[in-house]
Specification:
heterodimer, B: alpha+beta, 5-stranded antiparallel sheet, 8 helices, 20 strands
């Protein structure tokens, strides 16, 4: 009652104080008609994942058997060690990690700065520049791939991790998303901080960003996925095996005449694992993001 | 501490709306000044200009001996309490209080001392480790006050700080505010639309409307001698009754009320405070009130009804009033009577008024006469 709804929601989100549960009688059914939809969808989603794990534990012969065998006769954990010895898998993993972490950090920093400027600072041409930025979201990557390649080449970054990091340090999507979120924060908090002695940057780092946890977490997760799974751009800019990322390295398991499916799937499992772990960890941020935008009346 | 002066300040927003029109105002050192007026009158804009959150379109603002037009909010040595308190949700009460001092690189022991002092004044000791979400409305309000006080600013700005509290707490905090001001003597500019707050708190009040000052003065003076129709209608609760009258030959006629007042021959509005009327007068000017609604308030009874005459609008009405007077030539009038005999709806009550208690305004200009 005493504050604005957004401020109220924020104060709750900021403290982790749970929303008071509305009092109502909950009916729990063991079965709901929704399950008829949800179960097939869940199976469709999970099956490829399970099959990947199963295949990664099969022998090469089993992977080629027709009809496919779903249960391996023995668990071939050797496939995993073979992947690690056959290819510089550790190196690729480290490369992927370096690129992804730096790109995520870069996006959080630069998109925050730009998003805040678009949200709160009045400057000449702000709306025009913002619309131009939004338009770039509609340009497919394939259209700019060659000019971007030429720019990166002129910077002397081809076949280095820099080619994967530098062009992706900030993105229009992140700027747009954070701008939208920042605009929902009560401006009085920022005004109070300015009167309390903060500069614009101080306001951003001490007030706005600490209150933007859900938005920053969402941006971090999305950027992580994009960067970790990116294949096309590394394929174009990286040639040497020691500079490859995981996705690019995976492709080397696919030969022109023969593919060792069991090894490819073992490598796949190891590639997907960090993403799955991230999802498990970030799930609560997603939930909190939804809770915050739900607002308390 | 410092005095504040606004010189011919105009604020025009990019959409063309003029929120403040040529406002000049002087706030003395240590004074408690109230800006009061209906919503949209420009009072909050004036406060934000002083705080530096907006820039004047023309005119200039002085705080102490500095012109602050180009000074950022953080360098103006002011503190502000916002209507929704704007406490930092991610910080404990202690960090909320200390934040401003930390930004100014105050030494740690000094921060600790001042936080302790302010928390003792406002009774926040037990709340220091809590977050804003864990506080009640009144507690949040006190923390917001504390966050401003702890900085020991030259000027203290408050933007409707009590409007989010319930009625009982509001009265309590009002007294507390006055006590704090008397104790610390910081120059305070306080914005409110509540005229009771304005009357009770201010050393002086500034009544504003449509971006302009209507009257500046001590609360009692503004109440006793409203400068124009707007102030007459705005200050006082229940609001002053305003009736249209004609002045000629040394007397004013308004409905059945005839007053021996020489104000020249012209159309006038006469104002009668509901609390100035007396029931069943022995002599003097009088009129009949047809009672429609009775509100007993213990020691007083507020009676709403109609009298013969034509109503005048002051411009201070919050919204168009539901017309109580359905017949022609009748005007709504409110009277505050003693508890002796409680009239019932349908009664006709004879009310008298002493001529010296009648306010007279020129109908064309709205200005007070005499």
């Amino acid at each position: 009652m005493s504050q604005t709804p957004v401020l109220d929601a924020l104060t709750r989100a900021g403290t982790g104080v749970p929303e008071p549960e509305p009092e109502r009688v909950r009916h729990r059914f063991l079965f709901s008609p929704w399950h008829l939809v949800l179960i097939p969808v869940a199976v469709t989603m999970i099956l490829p994942l399970v099959w990947m794990v199963v295949t990664s534990l099969q022998t090469l012969d089993e992977t080629r058997h027709y009809p496919p065998t779903f249960w391996p006769s023995s668990l071939e954990f050797g496939n995993y060690s073979e992947v690690l010895t056959q290819a510089p898998f550790g190196r690729w993993f480290v490369n992927s990690l370096i690129v992804t972490v730096l790109v995520v950090l870069g996006n959080l920093l630069f998109c925050s700065l730009a998003g805040y400027a678009f949200a709160r600072i009045r400057f000449f041409g702000r709306e025009v520049v913002f619309v131009l930025l939004l338009i770039t979201l509609m340009v497919p990557f394939q259209v700019i791939i060659i000019p971007e390649f030429l720019i990166v080449r002129s910077l002397g970054l081809i076949d280095s991790l820099g080619a994967l990091i530098l062009p992706n340090l900030a993105g229009a999507f992140g700027v747009f998303m954070l701008r939208q979120f920042f605009r929902t924060l009560p401006i009085e908090l920022e005004e109070a901080a300015r009167i309390d002695g903060c500069t614009r940057l101080g306001v951003l780092f001490k007030i706005v960003l600490p209150l933007s946890g859900p938005a920053l977490a969402t941006l971090a997760v999305i950027t992580f996925l994009w960067t970790w799974n990116d294949f096309l751009w590394p394929l174009i800019t990286i040639y040497s095996p020691e500079h490859m990322t995981l996705q690019l390295g995976l492709a080397t398991f696919q030969g022109a005449h023969q593919t060792n499916t069991n090894l490819l799937m073992a490598a796949n499992v190891m590639t997907v694992l960090p993403v799955l772990l991230l999802f498990l960890f970030a799930q609560r941020y997603f939930v909190r993001g939804i809770a915050t935008s739900g607002l308390k009346g | 501490m410092a005095d504040v002066e606004l010189t011919r300040v105009t604020k025009r927003f990019p959409n063309g709306h003029v929120a403040l029109d040529d406002l000049s105002l002087e706030v003395e050192d240590g004074e408690f000044l109230i800006l009061v007026g209906p919503s949209g009158c420009g009072k909050t804009t004036a406060l934000r200009l002083i705080a530096g959150l907006e820039r004047c379109t023309t005119g200039s603002i002085r705080i102490g001996d500095r012109i602050v037009d180009d000074v950022s909010p953080r360098d103006r040595d002011i503190a502000m309490v916002f209507q929704n308190y704007a406490l930092y949700p991610h910080m404990t009460v202690r960090r909320n209080l200390a934040f401003g001092l930390k930004q100014r690189h105050t030494p740690k022991p000094e921060i600790e001392r001042r936080v302790r002092e302010v928390s003792a004044i406002l009774g926040l000791d037990e709340l220091l480790t809590r977050r804003p979400a864990q506080l009640s409305g009144g507690q949040r309000q006190r923390v917001a006050m504390g966050r401003s006080l702890v900085r020991e600013p030259a000027v203290f700005l408050l933007d409707e700080p009590l409007s989010n509290l319930d009625a009982k707490l509001r009265v309590q905090m009002r007294a507390e505010l006055k006590r704090i001001h008397q104790r610390l003597g910081i120059t305070t500019i306080y914005v409110t639309h509540d005229q009771v707050e304005a009357m009770t708190l201010g050393d002086r009040i500034v009544v504003m409307s449509a971006g302009c000052v209507q009257q500046i003065g001590r609360p009692q003076d503004v109440y006793r001698r409203p400068a124009n129709l707007f102030v007459a209608g705005f200050i006082g609760s229940p609001a002053m009754n305003l009736l249209r009258g004609t002045a000629s030959d040394g007397r004013i006629t308004a409905g059945e009320l005839v007053l021996d007042l020489a104000v020249g021959d012209r159309e006038v509005a006469i104002g009668i405070r509901p609390e100035s009327v007396v029931r069943d007068p022995a002599e003097g000017p009088a009129f009949d009130l047809d009672v429609e609604v009775v509100e007993p308030l213990g020691e007083q009874i507020v009676v709403h009804g109609t009298v013969a005459g034509t109503p005048v609008e002051s411009g201070a009405e919050e919204e168009t009033e539901i017309p109580l007077a359905l017949e022609d030539r009748r005007a709504p009038v409110t009277a505050v009577l003693g508890p002796a005999a409680e009239p019932v709806p349908g009664d006709r009550v004879r009310l008298g008024i002493a001529p010296e208690k009648v306010h007279v305004f020129d109908l064309a200009s709205g200005e007070a006469i005499g």
